[in-house]
User: Fold these one by one.
Assistant:
Number 1:
Amino acid sequence: MADPQEVLSQRVQSALGAAFGTEFAETDPVIRPSQFADYQANVALALAKRLGRKPRDVASAIEERLDVDDVCREVEISGPGFINLILRDDWIAGQTQGLLSDPRLGVAQPQPQNIPIDYSAPNVAKEMHVGHLRTTVVGDALARTLEFLGHNVIRQNHIGDWGTPFGMLIEHLLDAGEHSAEADLLKTDPNAFYQAAKAQFDTSEEFATRARKRVVLLQGGDTETLRLWQELVDLSKVYFNKVYSALGVTLTDDDLAGESTYNDMLPEICDELERQGLAEVSEGALCVFLDGYTGREGNPVPLIIRKSDGGYGYATTDLATVKYRVEELKADRILYVVGAPQNLHFRMVWDTARKAGWVPDTVETTHVQIGNVLGSDHKILRTRSGKSIRLMELLDEAVERATQVVAENRPDLDDETRAQIAREVGIGAVKYADLSVSHDTEYVFDFDRMLALTGNTGPYLQYAQARIRSIFRKGGVTPEDAAAGTIKVTESAERDLALALLGFAPTVQLVGETLEPHRLCAYLFDLAQAFTSFYDQCPVLKAEDAELRASRLALTAATLRTLVQGLDVLGVHAPEQM
Ligand SMILES: NC(=[NH2+])NCCC[C@H](N)C(=O)O
């Protein structure tokens, strides 16, 4: 184990047990990074009260029994009873060396869990909007991170592929003609098709009547209607996959588990809730009333699970998702990466499902709330004419702008290489902008900021790792060969860089627990900066002697691997050159 904080925690806990009895061996030793030492153990202050002794005495008692000679160069009691811990340089070097021979970069293998993760979930025959973009990008980063940690991640793309709009969509498909140019638009510009269908529905009584009849046929399972519905879904899948491949996200058709998947479960869900006395008919609709959910005038807010016309809605399908994920997917932990406004919906659905006994207490359900993406006017991002933005156009513009950045920086490269780099940088910039702020906050979409080569941006980190690759090219060494070098830590910049490298595993673990990829972004940004200071202060290729050169090249190799691995779990490409 390479995490100094974890190692020191265990050592201090042993000392606590030895000094005050085994019941203290699990007390939190309160190890914190400190400006006066590498770390401080602050447990003595809290314990003093409990023990009725002076904090400094408690600290001395701990220090006396503390066995850290192999890890620390100095242990010193300061102030009212802080224990300052300064790590040994050779310990830091040894632990960093360990990272180089570990494909997991120090990340411990956890007890693997089954984790279904619901993300992206665009709607059939509709444009994906920036909100979908963000759940797709954040969800994918979480899926990758949990997978890297060693869990069994089950991607669930809950696309909106059912409901009353399909009546008008199917009728419009028939009017436009199957395989017509207009139908083909669904693969590239779904909104045009949707709007045309909607316009028909709103203006033609004849069309509206057909559309309503079509909904009944669809729900009744009419074969021809289902075939047409499937065609709409298939055309939309082409569009979704185009977006996914442009973004480089890991979702495939195998991960599709849309609303329609759960149709067969819905009647039974309602029956069972009724049987259990959890649901009751109110104004013709079957509703669940839960304690603690009241509206403006104190009226109870119902979770409607069957409408008065007999139809099922979003709530019923989501009851099915959680039941299915527990019972069939054997989930240990279930994540829903969905827009923040849907929080009330999920809380009510899960409360109901738990009451019904479908979700045991041991299974955690989490709504990873996605905040809005805003335009420069601080309103939900739209085009100037107020229409929602076409996602593909947005991505194309990012690549277009990145093309200019790359052209300025690398006029020496051929067009094709430059175009490839521009794609990786443009998409990387958009994705990183979504990831680097905490997922539940709103942020302003700003091309200039996300594409900047300075600051906590995708292009800055991509550039940082590309620059390291160029060091190896210049030195005629491969990173793999360099990794065999023996690390020695003497200069303070080397020490800082090595300590930063040891922070990778705990950070990834923390992201797995908190589901906050922005913590990994902040870590990688700090690491890249630690490398810059190191590279400024410590000659690498021109180091004084061969041993020093080998050590610094090994540190450089460890940095490259960590940056590339970190970007990879975020889903951001790391170009060879930039
Ligand atoms: N299980 C879920 N409800 N997942 C999220 C679905 C998101 C929905 N399709 C939307 O566009 O808002």
Number 2:
Amino acid sequence: MQVSQQLAAQAVGQVLDGRNLSVVLETLFQQHPHITPQQRAVSQDLAYGTLRFYSRLEALLQQLLQKPLTEAFIHHLLLVSLYQLAYDKAGAHTVVNQAVLAAAKTKKSWAKGLVNAVLRNFLRQRDALEQKLANNQVAQYSYPQWWINKLKQQYPDHWASMLEAGNQHPPMTLRVNRRHSDADHYLQQLQAADLPAQALDAQAIMLEHAVPVSRLPGFEQGHASVQDWGAQFAALELDAKDGMRVLDACCAPGGKTGHVLELADVHMTAMDNDAKRLQRVQQNLDRLGLQANLVQGDASTPDAWWDGQPYDRILADVPCTASGIVRRHVDIKWLRREQDIAAFAEQQRVILQGLWRLLAKGGKLLYVTCSVFHEENQQQIAQFLRSQPDARLLPLKHDALQSNQGQLLPGTHHDGFFYALLQKV
Ligand SMILES: C[S@@+](CC[C@H](N)C(=O)[O-])C[C@H]1O[C@@H](n2cnc3c(N)ncnc32)[C@H](O)[C@@H]1O
């Protein structure tokens, strides 16, 4: 556990300095090639858990310190250990002892004593410390204040449940490849492999416990893919038919590209501006046995890559704040700044404008974000419709989208997404 606490503490520190959690963890694991798969998994769980509840843990820690902590590693080690004591199954004495040993490695004479005292005081005073946070929403929900304020303003009836949904442990959800099977049949295969699960619709299945993909029946043969249920609405709403020309304009890593191709035999151009991420699209398509014309390019400047033939369907799954998928990407809560919203909204506006002229008359463009902020969603589309007289907004099929003007609120079964289906008239 000591190694995992140490690595998690380093990862937490680097994320709080502005770095992406999955990149940070990958780099740390490369630097420690001898740790076991179990130590990797525990390090990852501790880093994710600590960041999920970061501001609550920080508020608890501040109550336990008599003066500010100047040693960053000890600070982050205490956050990880408090996470373990407050949320994890590990035994309290083991957590404290291992943290003290990890602190000793810093060779600071005061570190061992401080870590021991802070963690034991937490165990003794926990109820009183927690009670003092009852009126502190940043500590209660573990989000930045600006984020809480924005959701309160934009979702007066749902803000608290949305914040809580973002703190849940995300489920592992599968998309069954319709070319091979459906949810009912695949469920039977999962049961035979001792993997309990439930069907969410004809293609989507939520597993009771996350497992390595190698344990999924037929995964290497493309019988199923890992994809949040909310993301699976995209290909269904796009409604591409056999023979159509389809552009997936921000496609990497190709989750939605694969789904569109599973549903219909279309001529697919899958484009992204990131060459490395495009390699993952190719790998995903290879596994599914599907084909697309992969193009590296900028969706906002199509003249550089477009062949001049209009598309019947365009999927614009644009870059966004990702505020709807924080339960999977816990670092986003601490990496985003409020001013990022306007910057993303401008990037999305330019992409949407750039893609619109590629759409055939009568064709449909599905605009998608994994954000819950109105500036990137409803406001973006309202502004687009005002500036584009040949665009009209079509109704969406899925009930959950219809009832919220295209906004899928994050919940137990899916992340938060926004969908708008536009037709060129
Ligand atoms: C939300 S992700 C797409 C996820 C993907 N549709 C899927 O379902 O797997 C957004 C993608 O847009 C790409 N991107 C960002 N700016 C772009 C631009 N100007 N032109 C094309 N792609 C862009 C990013 O590299 C990223 O892969």
